[in-house]
Every structure is written in structure tokens, then in C-alpha cells.
């Protein structure tokens, strides 16, 4: 049996649902007798209830039975792993359902499995990878980037980036006051916009309101928005990695909040909610001294353009339901699980 990483490393990967451990390790939960893949969307166990295995046979031998959600011993993981590997090998390929079917896979099955594991379909993941590859190639040549990214036409390439950034690619080349780039995370790719001193925007790429948010940020910056990275972008990526791995509950980054005075008061109050805790909209309204402004608080929460750093995911319904998160309820649940585990670890450490 091959050697496995240490308990803390594997537990952090479990909390982050890190796909890098797919096929490398499984977790057995002593309190339920079930073993899972580390990317399983089920509620995460306490660290003391985890046992680690190199493969499904070892887990079964130890008396654990496979999880029905992530199917760690079935054919589904092999299918997902094969398509994920194909995407990593050629991120610029323009995948279609016909391509998936040509490989002998049922597109609806693939769609269901990827959404269950990653919260998005395989084709959505492929599109994000293709856009990211195009952004990285953009400074060299608009036409070359269009070809390299696998878009069918230059107009299609420009339209995709115009939808995201509110500018044609040519307008975004060269130095700018702020630079936009992709950041890969275990919860999906994000777009970060930062200058040399502040982070202006951090959003998941598939959020429906992303184009609107990018246009507003561009307007605040006077249209001076380029593609690339700054030191703040690098700092943001490192902080996100530690946060989503359950290693650091803080996202202490220099922010530039673009909003009204009321919106900024709501966003500052959100940043005061400790990791591992939640608030209702009514509680948040009371915290800023406007107890009758619950709806306005909810609207300000929805207008937040700094996901995770301004933790609007920590606001839940008055009935305790996880609703109203533009990044997806599955992400909200996962973020709260990560933060609860971090808070528990902090309490146990003293």
C-alpha cells in the first residue's frame, strides 16, 4: 500500500473538496461506517472520526461501506477523473455534448456527476478553462489568443470577454490602474481585480451578475482596466488557498469598497462576523443601527462584489435556511462547513 499524506493535510483537502486528491486517498468515517472520496459533497465529519485509505479495497477490508452519493468504489469516479484529465491536458478545447457522447458517455450522466462533485457541469468547467486560457494569451495578440482559446471566430472571442469585462479585448491590453485575472480555487474559478495596493473585486466566474459587477468596477476605475496580476492578486490567491484548506480563517486583504455609504456600512458589518458564526438579515440590520432596514440590508448583501472576503455567505434566513447566495447554496454550505471546522480547531487549540 502506498504511503498517504499526513492526517492534517488530508483533512484540509477533505474540507476543501480538493480534486487533486481524486484517486489518491479516501476517507472512512468511523461514526457512520461509510467511506467517501475527498470531494464528496456530504457533511464533513470531525477530524477524530476520519480514517484514511489509499483505495476502496482497503476501506472495505477495514469494514467501511461505500458512500451512495460520491460512489467511491464505482465507475463514476473513473469517468469523472478521465474527463477532468482530458480538460487539464487541453484546457483550450471547445467541448460539446456530442464530444462527450463520442467518448461513450451519456451527457446527462456526466452533467449530473460533475454538478454533484464540483457544483457545475463539465461543459461549464470547460468554458471557464477556455476563457482562462484566452485571458493568459491575450497580451500577445488578440487574433492568436482567439485561435489558441479554441473559439470559432474572433467575434465570438471578443464577445465572451466583453460579456465578462465590459470591454473589447483590445481595450484591455497594456498597463492599467487595475488588472483582472483568474484564480483557481477548490470551489471553482474566480475573477480578481486588483491594483498595486487594493483588491477591488473577487467573484466566481459563473455568477450571473458578474458582467454587471465588472462594468461597475470598470466605471469606478475610469475604464482603466487591464489583464494581468499584481502583488495584491498573488496575496489574494495565497490567502484563499489557506482559507479554503481550513488553515486560516482570516482573509485579511486590503480592500477598496465601491458602494454607497449604506452599502459600505453593511459590508463592514459583514466583515465583523467571526468565522464559524452566522447572522440573519434582521440581526445584521440591528448591528448597523437600522433595525427596520432589513430589505435594504439584503440588497446591499446581494450587491457585494468581494465574495468570501466580505463574507455575505455568513448571512442566513431567519429560519436558519441557507438561501440567497449568488455563488450557489452548495458553495454557501461548503464555506460554512470550512469555517465551522476552523473555529472548532481554534477553540480546541486554546
From TrEMBL:
Its EC number is 2.1.1.63. Binds 1 zinc ion per subunit. CDD domains: ATase. It is an enzyme of class 2 (transferase). It comes from the Bacteria. One of its GO terms (biological process) is DNA repair. Keywords: Activator, DNA damage, DNA repair, Metal-binding, Methyltransferase, Transferase, Zinc. One of its GO terms (molecular function) is zinc ion binding. The active site is at 36 (nucleophile), 312 (nucleophile). Residues 103-175 form the HTH araC/xylS-type domain. InterPro entries: Ada-like_dom_sf, Ada_DNA_repair_Zn-bd, Bifunct_regulatory_prot_Ada, HTH_AraC, MethylDNA_cys_MeTrfase_AS, MethylDNA_cys_MeTrfase_DNA-bd, MethylDNA_cys_MeTrfase_DNAb, MGMT_N_sf. Pfam families: Ada_Zn_binding, DNA_binding_1, HTH_18. It catalyses: a 6-O-methyl-2'-deoxyguanosine in DNA + L-cysteinyl-[protein] = S-methyl-L-cysteinyl-[protein] + a 2'-deoxyguanosine in DNA; a 4-O-methyl-thymidine in DNA + L-cysteinyl-[protein] = a thymidine in DNA + S-methyl-L-cysteinyl-[protein]. Its cofactor is Zn(2+). Belongs to the MGMT family. NCBIfam families: ogt. This is methylated-DNA--[protein]-cysteine S-methyltransferase. It comes from Paracoccus tibetensis.
